[in-house]
Hints:
A hairpin with a 6-residue loop joins strand 22 (342-343) and strand 23 (350-354). The chain starts with 15 loop residues before the first strand and ends with a helix. Helix content is 4%, strand content 37%. The chain has a single domain (16-271, 278-428), classed as Neuraminidase (6 Propeller). With 432 residues, it is mainly beta. It is built from 3 helices and 28 strands.
Amino acid sequence: MKRSMTSNTPASFVPCRRLGDGRQHHFFGYYNKSSWDRSNRLVLAQQTPWMDQYLTPQARASIGYFDTENGDRFHAVGETGAWNWQMGSQLQWLDGLAGRQLIHNDRTADSGGRYPGFGSVVIDVDSGERRTLPMPVYVVAPSSAWALCVDYRRLYVTHETIGYSEEGGPFALPFAPEDDGIWRMEVATGEARLLASYARLKDFHHRASMDKAIHWVSHIEVNPSSSRILFLHRWTERVKDETCFLHRLITMAPDGSDMRLLECSDHPLPQLAADFDPMAVGTFDYEKSEYQISHPLWQDDSHIIVWGPHAGEIHYHLYDDVEGGDVQVVGAGVLVENGHMSFSPVDTRWLLSDTYPDDRTHERFLFLYDMHTGERHDLGSFYASPDLSKENRCDLHPRWSRDGRQVCIDSVHEHQRQMYVLDVSGIVEARR
């Protein structure tokens, strides 16, 4: 039976329903992919028996989807041991392939691969056919011809919330190796080649703060035509304190050429003092840092929205994909904090985003922002227990339906980790 939010919900907020019967926990993961298939019927999800389990290599999650035309019932099609609470298993639809096919990361028995014990699985939802690929994916290009891949063991060392653990680990890693970085893997064959090594990234517009630091990349995204790639290059001398992370926004061509530096936040790090206590850092201090560059996303083939500092001020900024190109502030005085933003797939007039929890109420807001009028439309407020740790927290991570009329979130406001669908058609269609 479908239920609405149990918290006090103002009448002005939009209709909201939970997917599933609540007997298990469900979540999708990150904000940057649609959980809906092209028909707007099937909604991808991971299913687990836990709300906030600390993840080990033995922890398994079911892979499947909700059928919104069949009572929102969950259908499992597989399972995975390669997942985390923030991004799941990088579950995503392969829109460029025939039929209804999905891909997700998994642990494998292959000890001879580039990243031993990790790969990805392609599943045809209708036929049940499965095939494996030799590398775990971060994101698949919209064309579905190729995927971008990284070492999730490196992410576990540098930024545990988005990495995968391994038996006996974590192990020491080279800081900026020449033989690892961002890989391109062909979805049809599994053939892979290195596009950008960490050594190359370290040398690209080099900064002195990089010399003693470990390097990694995150938030890799491909533009709609699959012609450009963006990512965040990050480095730090202190992996246990996220406020010591340094950030750059970089783009490149799909073959690794034509690399462009769009923004760099190389800031002072007083926290590197020997007596600094990383346990004193709050769960969301990193996301709320004045130096944070985070959650970049393509608006179209040549523009990128991101939260971060530019010209001495931190805002939502819209960048031209050109070194030294135009940078516009988005929502000055209205959008005043970091969130997970994305544009409607139907009309980029509409920007969907959320907030991190209020320090006092622990409520987070979900909202639409009208790029034409500058209006913010709050969709709901959702409580999250402050007892959840950095590694097992539940951000809303809002995602659009393919028709731009609904959004889907992960939330724990009913003391379960569940997915909710909100109807925004009354807002977006009223302004067409």
